[in-house]
Give the backbone structure.
Amino acid sequence: MEEYTWPPRHPDVSGLSPDEVWAATIAALPVGAAAEGEVIGRQPFGVFIRIDGLPGAVGLAEIIAMPEGMGLPVLGARIRGEVIDHVEHNRQVRVRLHEVETALGRSRL
């Protein structure tokens, strides 16, 4: 497995335009909302997350939104966190991590 990977392209959300998908994502995940999902990409600056229940939504947890000393979660890790921002230009939901679950166990942050 490569150390760093980009997430796969956004899935086609049948019948909805990209603008509609983004509007639905913002409505479902306001700032302060809980976010859960799976790590689908890793880069030196953070991890990309497929957010549960929102097929067109991509989250990003940057290393600055992770507790000090925490390493990057591995691909496939389950995360829990809080929405801290919406970034319009690339349609990403920024997430502050609270919990990471891997095959080795759960880590509360």
